[in-house]
Structures are given as C-alpha cells and as structure tokens.
Amino acid sequence: MSEDQFFLNGIDGVTGEYLVPPMSAESVARLIRPTADREQSGWLKRVQSLFTRPFRGLPVDIDPTDVARAGWGVVVSPQTPSETLSALEPLIAHRRSQVLADRCKTLEYRAGENMKDWLKRHGVYPGSVAPTKVPYYLLLIGGPESIPFDFQCLLDIEYAVGRLCFDLADQYRLYAESVVDYEKAQAAPTSRQMVYWGTRHPRDRATEMSADFLISPLHEGVPAAADQPEEEAIAGTQGFRSLCLKGREATKARLSEVLRPPSGAGRPSFLFTASHGMGWPKGHQNQRAAQGALLCQDWSGFGSIRPGDYLSAADVDDDARFQGLVTFMFACYGAGTPAFDNYLSNRNQGPVPIADQGFIASLPQRLLSHPQGGALAVIGHVERAWGYSIRPPGIGPQLVPFRNCIGRILLGQPVGHSTRDFSEKYAVLSGDLLQKLDQTQGGAPPSDEGLASTWIERNDAQNYIVLGDPAVRLAVSKLQTP
Asked: Which of 107, 173, 194, 287 is deepest in the core (most CB within 10 A)?
C-alpha cells in the first residue's frame, strides 16, 4: 500500500473490505475545490481569535469548568415528547439545584435554523457567550432528524455541547437517574484506572497508524527527541494507572472483560478505543442495529466478516455495569451516522444518501442507558474517522487534542469542555481551508497534497461529538485505588 495514499477507518459489514478505498491526494483535491464561502471564513477567523483567551467567549470572570456560573441548559425541538422531558426531570432538577437560577434554561430549536440564526434568536451573537441567555453547557435532546448534526458541530466550537437520543422514555430515565446517583454517592463505583484498547490488523494501514501513533504514545508517552522534550504517559501525569490492550490483545473477549470485569476486579473510569467501525449500505437490516460497532482483533482480514468479529450493542449483557465510565471511541460511525455523505459526494450529482435518516449509534445508546447503571458519556465520531489526522504526511504524530482531552477528563473537568481542542482544531483548519480555496486571494494555488491534508485533518476534528450530559465529570476525589 502506498504511503502517498489516504486511508479512512471503517470496514464494510457485507464485503469485509474498506468502506472507502484508499485515495490519492489528487482524487481528494478534486472533491474539495468548490468556491470558498467567504462569509463563513470571516466568522471562523473571528472565532479563532477567541482561542487565545483563557475563557474563550465567556466573560473573563467565569471559569468554563464552573458549571454553576457557566450555565447549563437543555435544547429541545417541537417534536420532543413530553414523556422524554418527564423522564429527564431527575437530571434537570439536579442541575437546577447546582446552577445559578438565571443561567439554567430550556431552549427550543426550530426546524431549519442554522447555528447563527438560533443564537441570534436567543439574543447572542457568535463570538460572545452570555450564560444568562444561552448557557455554556448545552444538552441537545433527540436525534439528528430533529436537531441536525451540523448544528451540534458548529455550536460546539464555542459551547460545551452533548446530546441524548434514545428510542424509549425509560432509557432517558435510566440515564438521568444513573448520573444523579453517581454525583450524589459518597463513593465512586470505578477506580483511578483507564484502559486503552486498539486493534492492529496485518496489511491494514489504518489500524497500524491508530495503534502505533495513537494508542502506543498515549499509553507509553513519547521519548525526548532532538528538538522536543519527553512527553509522559498522560494517565500517569494525572495519577491514574493504565492498561493497554493492543494488537493481539485487542480481542472481543478482552474488550467484553473490560466492560464486564470479573467479580472483585476494579472497574476503569475511562476507556479509550481505536479500531475500525462497522458500516452497512443504506437500507441494510444491520445498519441501525450495528453501524459503528467496534471491529475486534478476531477479524481474519479483508474479504470476510462475521458477527463474532465485532462488538455491537447486542453483545452487551444486562448484568454489565457502566456507571461512572467515560468512553472515547476512535471509530467510523462510533457515535452516529448522517443521512447523507458529508465528504465523498459526487458534486455533479448532489448529496449521496447513506442512510434512510440520520441516527445515533446503538452501542453508545446501550452504554448510556444500561439498566445496571449507564456510562456518564461517550465521545465518538459522526461519519468516518480519518486516521491520517493522527500523523499528517511529513510530520510526527499530532496528539495534543487527544492528550488534552484525556488529561482534562482525568482531572475531573466536565466532559463537554474537555473536547474543546477538537472544536478549536476544526475551526482553525476550516478557516485555513477556506482561505486556500478562496480564488480572490491571488498567489500560487495550493498543492493537491496540501489541500488533501488540511481537508482530512479538518474533517476528523469536526465530527467528534459528546453523547451524554456535557456537564458530567469524573468524581476524581471519590475514585477507588485500583
């Protein structure tokens, strides 16, 4: 396989081949040379200036990790059933008791609104966060058919955004009660331990990169180089032990054991996975049930696929326990699937449908609403994961967003704020890409390689979303010693 090609994570559940074949820089560049949106470019440039400030768009006297002052709210649509809000009332009442009364809100999203119009309707303009009008922590209720993924991704540039979407009101109740119980308990059910789990399949450039340039340096740290100081393993810097299950150890059985440890074994507080996510064609019977399922090391390789090769929601037993767990899944469709292909569309034919409608992945839904206690939050990808964002051509691994996200979570900062580096990277690279594509700027046109690299890094950063309440955090002072 050529080092000059770009590899996307994801395996087709029908064929056992890559969901998208490796692409050359030239083929990628052909997809991304539309006319630049100068209005959006200008807004992104303004937003970038906020990232030099310690508190972004919040007033300077408000710490973004202080939920009480930064504010918390739920965002609903006219289609949100009353039963859903009733089921969430334990969580809403709990946050109401913690947050200042003038910045605990229920806000409505109206069909067709873009992010800027929605903010303006609530008295705020992009670039300025006013918690008494729109709180910093926002929990979207419902699927992308009622509140679009694009709205969430753009709103997340300046706000700490999460989403809850389940099929049944009882699942909302289970999640709400689990979070409240966790935050009120005298002791946490998990320990000061995190687990890395990452596959590495033979002749598979995508998982070779995620295993060697993501999982390994996060778990082991990075030795000093000529011009760079040593980077310690991020878990150790926060006083956490870490276990790494990579390559041959990244089996379905070992992952199941992490999710359902033996009696008496301590449970981790944080699980980080890197693997292929499973995908199926539009209309396939497995798409809603298993899209985004985690392909395990059990897979025999390209050209074949069995249900036993991947972990899906159906593999999670009722006696598992997830309360107090935060999970980060680096996998295609790990968090959800849009209705249309966001990136690889044929511009002469218009958007390419990939699902009957957008949806949230079943595996994180199962983890969050488990009857024995749900996970606090799941961070994952909507759309595809782009492995080349880990190690862009010509430079070493780019791990700062991952290290910072893990470090903030292990420090006990709110999960929705902990992902801020991905949002900032998305905004910065979007502005850079739009400037490269702006034909009014003059100068030499950008190279195919430069365009492709920027586009792929931007795409990867864009589609990380938080599923769960963005204000949840690990109760670090209550965690057990492993």
From this structure: 194
Phi, psi of 290, deg, nearest 5: -140, 5
From the list 262, 466, 470, 471, the residue with the least C-alpha distance to 364 is 466
CB neighbour class for 284 (10 Å; exposed up to 12, middle 13-18, buried from 19): middle
3-state secondary structure 29-96: HHHCCCCCCHHHHHHHHHHHHHCCCCCCCCCCCCCCCCHHHHCEEEEECCCCCHHHHHHHHHHHHHHH
Q: Which amino acid, one-letter code, is at 335?
A: A
Q: What is the pLDDT of residue 227?
A: 75
- Kindly provide the residue ranges of all beta strands, DSSP E only, lying in 349-440, ordered along the sequence: 359-360, 377-381
Residue 1 placed within a domain: no
pLDDT score at 348: 58
- 76/299 Cα distance (integer angstroms): 41
Indicate whether 4 belongs to any domain.
no
Residue 393 tokens, joined: 């051509």
Q: Which domain holds residue 54?
A: 11-478
Beta-carbon contacts of 344 under 8 Å, excluding residues fewer than 6 positions away, are 20, 31, 352
HSE-up (13 A, CA, CB side) for residue 147: 29
166-200: b (≥16 Cβ within 10 Å) or e: beebebbbbbbbbbebbbeeeebbbbbbbbbbbbb
Residue 170 lies in a domain: yes
pTM of the model: 0.91
Q: Which run of H or of E encompasses 149?
A: helix 149-155
**In the chain, which residues have pLDDT < 50?**
1-2, 35-39, 52-54
Give which of 137, 149, 163 is closest to 69, Cα–Cα. 137
Question: pLDDT tens across 184-235, in order?
Answer: 999 999 999 999 999 999 999 889 989 999 999 999 998 877 777 888 899 9
Q: How far apart are the C-alpha atoms of 401 and 408, rounded to whole Å?
A: 11
* Cross-strand pairs, 223: none
Residue 275 covered by a domain: yes
Dihedral Cα 231, 232, 233, 237, nearest 10 deg: -130
